[in-house]
């Protein structure tokens, strides 16, 4: 194994665009609600549902890291408020998760991940609630961890610590790639990992320093790993 034993990857907006998938999943759930709970949708639009979910997160900070549970609690409350069985939330969330898993990886991602696997341990680390085994990238990772799995969301170090413990690796043996300056780059650095910034949109680094290593796609990340070796 090369000296860089472990490669950790953020998912949303690093390996695939997040917003289109979330919007499609929310639209699909809302269509289901129109059929199942019309009194609810007569009063609440999609943006209203988002605001309600944000309010639930503020009221229940202990579950704010678990996006699936958070959505379910919000849906249960609204269903009950309008006279429907809150147990219907299970059916709604099952639909939402199926749609949430319909991500479309950026063109180079699957090819590069297949090339990297075997030379490194590949671990997916996400604050989101995608089910990796049901996405087009199923089988590309040695391990996939979510904030719900470890009880904390990035920038808390729990996801990084869990990945390193599973791999039996030290922070110096790992690199994390992610798009978010705070929850990926700074958080990984704080946990002792080297961080690489996925900057597909050509943004300016927001920090006061010169910034981390940055790449525009996964092919450039692989090229950086080769130079590092």
Write up what this structure looks like.
By secondary structure, this protein is of the alpha/beta class. It has helices at 19-36, 38-43, 46-59, 67-81, 89-100, 109-116, 147-150, 158-167, 181-190, 218-228, and strands at 6-9, 121-126, 143-146, 174-178, 194-198, 213-215. Helix 9 links the parallel strand 4 (174-178) and strand 5 (194-198). Helix 3 packs across helix 4 (67-81) and helix 4 (67-81) packs antiparallel against helix 5. It is elongated and about 60 Å long.
**What structural class should be given to the helix and strand makeup?**
alpha/beta
| Beta-strand proportion | 5-15%
Strand order of the largest sheet: 3-2-1-4-5-6
Q: How many helical elements?
A: 10
Classify the helix fraction into a percent range: 40-55%
Lay out the secondary structure:
Layout: E1 6-9, H1 19-36, H2 38-43, H3 46-59, H4 67-81, H5 89-100, H6 109-116, E2 121-126, E3 143-146, H7 147-150, H8 158-167, E4 174-178, H9 181-190, E5 194-198, E6 213-215, H10 218-228
Helix pairs in contact: 1-5, 3-4, 4-5
Feature tags:
alpha/beta, 12% strand, 229 residues
Structure summarized in a few sentences:
By secondary structure, the protein is of the alpha/beta class. The chain has helices at residues 19-36, 38-43, 46-59, 67-81, 89-100, 109-116, 147-150, 158-167, 181-190, 218-228; strands at 6-9, 121-126, 143-146, 174-178, 194-198, 213-215.
């Amino acid at each position: 194994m090369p000296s860089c034993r472990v490669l950790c990857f953020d998912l949303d907006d690093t390996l695939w665009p997040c917003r289109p998938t979330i919007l499609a999943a929310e639209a699909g759930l809302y269509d289901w609600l129109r059929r199942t709970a019309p009194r609810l949708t007569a009063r609440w639009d999609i943006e209203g549902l988002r605001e309600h979910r944000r309010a639930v997160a503020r009221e229940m900070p202990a579950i704010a890291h678990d996006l699936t549970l958070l959505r379910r609690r919000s849906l249960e409350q609204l269903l009950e408020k309008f006279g429907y069985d809150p147990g219907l939330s299970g059916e709604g969330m099952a639909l939402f998760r199926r749609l949430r898993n319909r991500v479309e990886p950026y063109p180079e991602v699957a090819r590069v991940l297949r090339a990297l696997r075997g030379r490194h341990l590949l671990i997916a680390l996400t604050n989101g609630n995608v089910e990796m085994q049901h996405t087009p990238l199923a089988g590309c990772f040695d391990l996939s961890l979510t904030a719900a799995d470890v009880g904390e969301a990035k920038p808390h170090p729990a996801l990084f610590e869990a990945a390193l413990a599973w791999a039996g690796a030290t922070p110096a043996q790992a690199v994390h790639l992610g798009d978010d300056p705070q929850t990926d780059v700074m958080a990984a650095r704080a946990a002792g990992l080297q961080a690489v910034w996925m900057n597909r949109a050509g943004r300016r680094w927001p920090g006061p320093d010169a910034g981390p290593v940055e790449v525009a796609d996964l092919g450039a990340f692989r090229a950086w790993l080769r130079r590092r070796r």
